[in-house]
Amino acid sequence: MSRTDQSDAVSVLRRAVPIDRARRMADLGDRFAAVADSADTVPAVLARAAADLPADLGVVWTWPDGDGSPHVSVAHHDDPLRAAAVTALLARAPQDRFAGTVLALARHVAGTGRPVVVSDAEALPGAFATTLREHLVGSAAVVPVWGRRSPVGALAVTRAPGDRPFSGEDVDVALVLGRRAGTTLETALLLAQVRRQAALMDAVSDAVVAVDRAGRVTAWNAAAARIYGIAADDAIGRPLADLVVAEHPGGTPADVADEVLRTGAWNGRLLVRSATGAVVEVDSSVTATRDSRGGVDGMVAVDRDLTEVIAARSAASAQARFTRDLMDALDSRAAVVDPAGVVLAGNSRWVAGTGERDHCVCGPVAEGSDWVAALRRSRLADVSRFVVEVEEVLRGARTVARLECRCFESGPERATAVEVTGLQETGGAVVVQSDVSWRRRLQDEMSHRATHDELTGLPNRAALIERLGASVERLDGDRMLAVLFCDLDGFKDINDGLGHSVGDQVLVAVARRLRQRCRQADVVARFGGDEFVVVIPVPDVGRARATAERLVEALSEPITVGDAEVAPGASIGVTVVDRRPPGDDPVGTLLRDADTAMYHAKERGRGRHELFDARLRVDISSRLEYASALRRAIGNGEMSMRYQARRHCGDRRLAGVEALLRWTHPAFGAVPPDVFVPIAERTGRIVEVGGWALQQALAEVALVDDRRVTVSVNVSPRQLSAPRFVEKVDGALAASGLEPWRVVLEITEGALVDDPAQARSVLTDLRRLGVSVALDDFGTGWSSLSYLRTLPVDIIKIDRSFVADMPRDPDACAVVSAVLGLGHGMGLVVVAEGVEREDQLDALREMGCDEYQGFIDGHPARLPDVLAP
Q1: What are the pLDDT digits (tens) for 745-786?
Q2: What is the pTM of this model?
Q3: What does the buried/exposed string (b/e) look like for 41-74 if buried means 16 or more CB atoms within 10 Å of the residue's CB?
Q4: How far apart are CA 777 and CA 773, in angstroms?
Q5: Which stretches of 453-530 are assigned E, i.e. beta strand?
Q6: pLDDT at 713
Q7: For 345-381, how does the pLDDT look when each residue is reduced to its tens digit (9 = 90+)?
Q8: Can you tell me the mean pLDDT for 466-489?
């Protein structure tokens, strides 16, 4: 308010006082109260009230700096909250004498409740008068500011020096102002307190609802509005029963009210239905409120919405059930332990097994017990290491710890695995204890299958190589190691003639016999097919050979399979060493040497054993070189044909010639047929080489003028079984122009064994071409007279081994005589091979042999030389 406005107000006030003093004082009080209603804080109330009072009352004083700011001084005794209302004066009191003087006077008035009037400041004691005068105070009145029952402060009103002194009327006005100011101050403070409480209530997340003794709402915070769907303006002043209906599981709302009235408080759960239709379950705490006399004048309820809590608990419960179901689905014992190792919960298998003893670990531990402590007490050899790992998991230092062990304490062997997995977010761990005996058995079975032959149960090639390698590395010159390589001689005949099922049973029987004839420490392995290897430590070579001979005898004994009885027989190669063989592959060297010796045994008649020596290794090396050179022999023109005469026994006339293949290598020289022919057979080159020999022989004989000369050409079993062999023979005949009746194809008994039906079919087709068929080396192979009767052959040739001992050996003569009788009886031409002496020829002539051939007429030569008279 400006100075002019204040002067006008003073004039109006002065004129009004004589007329209606009471009215003037009421008007001032109303204006003061209006200020309080429009202000937000106590300082604002006081400041605006001071600005609106008439200036002639001097309620406004000016500080020495002359800034004109209005201030009202109110001193409060024993109330620190109200001290905030006089910050302007109190803040300067320690430094300003005037402020200190007025403050002291105001405290006196507030304490006594009686006003103090200073009509003339000059009349006061010197120091005090000087202080007032310096602050432009000529007179003053300090009146109490009353609360409800006692003063709560004081109001100081001053006049400037020179103004009229205070009158009784002015003091009355000041007293009215003081009383109204007290009332207004109390109201303003109460409103401020209410606003603060309301702000605090709205900051609370729980619903706060207050009611008076009649049940009407006096407080309703923001959380209550949110939870129950009713705004505070719509709730305050209305009966609570019209807004919400509470259902108490243990009684009625009236029971809750009675409990509060009786004890002053109640706590429990309520299901609250609001007028808006919302249904909320709350955790309610109800407290009685009391008036100044201690009586209950209402209630305050703090309601916590349990919707999210219930949802969270429901979700947690569902998660717990899911976790429990998941753990129960495990085919293992499972439990959750806290960071200290104490069992919190276990699945049904864990709980069911509590108290049982698990010999492998420590058994299931009851809930609430220390699992780690029980683990520490177990007697496992490596449990200490595992406990350290488990403790690291529980500390979060590692993710998982595992232990697997075998158990033998009672019953059959079992295997148990324990896996401890840390829970990173919640701490603790999940313990899963499983019986993994089945897995161990499966692993053992798979390992056995990987290292043992499925049919015979013997160690397989991989296991043999591993064990033989370990044995070789232990050789130190003081002990010897023997490797016996066994190959069944007649297994192919058994397999083809009686079927693979019988063949498998024979292999099982052979494996059993080998195992029975060897010591437990000896290694008996199936190398593959019908090949077996035996590894034995021996004191000397003689012991190795004796063992090999014993095995040969065992395998030559008949084996009964169903209705069949077979004797497979075996050839065994033996190699003996006392030190590790040189080179990067000592195991391979030993097996190769034993294999070489085995083939040498087969070449020397089968059903025997042979000891490896360095010369055999040289032979093998030479064979490899021959095999390599044989691939280029035909192209390089190294092959040629030689012929041996076949003559009639009676007059020794020329009956024909046998074509014999010869190989002359530029480096090796003349390679004997008994060397390169087996190599050609093994490598498959015999088909190409034999085909060339057939074409060459037919072409050379076709140039002979004497059409009476026939030519015999050897055919290997591989040639006979090769595709389109008959077509190739037909093609050779056509290319040479030689008459088919002049061609004899010689086959061995071995060519008939592999596939008799196929051989018979091919021979039949060859005879349709017009060529003759001769059965070579008769009597040395698979000779079956009943089968011979069905074969389409024209000639049989007696093997040289029977002729060699004639005529001195009666048995040899008997065999030859028998063959002659058989052949002639079947209408076949019989030829004797290997005739070298006259006495042999004379004996054959006397027996009625048809033809002969041999060195008696010279060695094989070129065709013109053989045909020369």
Answers
A1: 998 876 666 667 788 888 899 999 999 999 887 766 545 555
A2: 0.43
A3: ebbebbbbbbbbbbbbbbbbbebeeeeeebbbbb
A4: 13
A5: 480-488, 523-528
A6: 94
A7: 777 777 765 544 444 455 566 766 777 777 777 655 5
A8: 88
Is the pLDDT assigned to residue 409 strictly greater than 60?
Answer: no
- pLDDT tens for 227-281 read 888 888 888 888 888 888 888 776 777 778 888 888 888 888 888 887 778 788 8
Residue 109 near residue 142 (C-beta atoms within 8 A) = yes
Q: Cβ contacts of residue 126 below 8 Å, gap of 6+?
A: none
Cα separation, 793 vs 789, whole angstroms: 9
Dihedrals phi, psi of 781, to nearest 5 degrees = -125, -140
Is the CB of residue 139 less than 8 Å from the CB of residue 158?
yes
DSSP letters, 350-401, are: HHHTTT---SSS-----TTSBHHHHHHTS--TTHHHHHHHHHHHHHTS-SEE
User: Long-range contacts of range 3-12, CB-CB < 8 Å, 24 or more positions apart?
Assistant: 3/55, 6/54, 6/55, 6/56, 7/55, 7/56, 9/54, 9/55, 10/54, 10/55, 10/56, 10/57
Q: How far apart are CA 853 and CA 706, in angstroms?
A: 20
Closest by Cα among 6, 82, 75, 85 to 45: 85
The amino acid at 717: P
Residue 358 CA to residue 514 CA, distance in Å, equals: 43
Residues 575 and 515: their CA atoms lie apart, in Å, by 20
Q: Where are the beta strands (DSSP E) in 489-602?
A: 523-528, 531-538, 559-561, 564-566, 570-577
DSSP code at position 518: S
Identify which of 357, 351, 343, 334 has the alpha carbon closest to the alpha carbon of residue 417: 334
Geometric angle at alpha carbon 157, from 155 and 160, rounded to 5° = 160
Distance CA 716, CA 678 (A): 10
Q: Which residue shows structure tokens 């498998």?
A: 504
Is residue 105 within 8 A of residue 114, CB to CB? The reply is no
- Residues 148-179 pLDDT 10s: 667 766 676 666 666 666 667 667 766 776 67
Cα separation of 12 and 10, whole Å?
Answer: 5
Q: Are 415 and 439 in contact (CB under 8 A)?
A: yes
Inter-residue contact 552 to 572 (CB < 8 Å): yes
H/E run at residue 438: helix 437-451
Angle at 86 between CA 80 and CA 89, to 5 degrees: 125
Asked if residues 280 and 307 have their Cβ atoms less than 8 Å apart, the reply is yes
User: How many other C-beta atoms are found inside a 10 Å radius of the C-beta of residue 670?
Assistant: 9
Angle, vertex CA 469, rays to CA 465 and CA 471, nearest 5: 120
Q: Quick one: 520 exposed, middle or buried, by C-beta within 10 A (0-12, 13-18, 19+)?
A: exposed
Evaluate if residue 844 carries a pLDDT over 80: yes
Residues 663-691: tens digit of each pLDDT: 998 888 888 888 888 888 877 888 899 99
Tokens 């008696």, residue located: 856
Give the separation between CA 144 and CA 163, rounded to whole angstroms. 23
Query: Rounded distance, CA 562 to CA 150, Å?
Result: 130
577 burial class (0-12, 13-18, 19+ CB within 10 angstroms)?
Answer: middle
The closest alpha carbon to 698, from 664, 731, 663, belongs to: 731
- For the record, the structure tokens of 197 come out as 């409480």
The answer to whether 504 and 519 are in contact (CB under 8 A) is no
- Rounded Cα distance between 567 and 253, Å, is 105
| Pairwise CA distance, residues 218 & 811, whole Å | 140
CA distances from 824 to 213, 770, 816, 850 (A): 144, 21, 12, 9
Q: Which helix (DSSP H) or strand (DSSP E) does residue 683 occupy?
A: helix 673-683
DSSP string, 396-421: TS-SEEEEEEEE-SSSS-EEEEEEEE
Cβ within 8 Å of residue 398, ≥6 positions away? 389, 392, 422
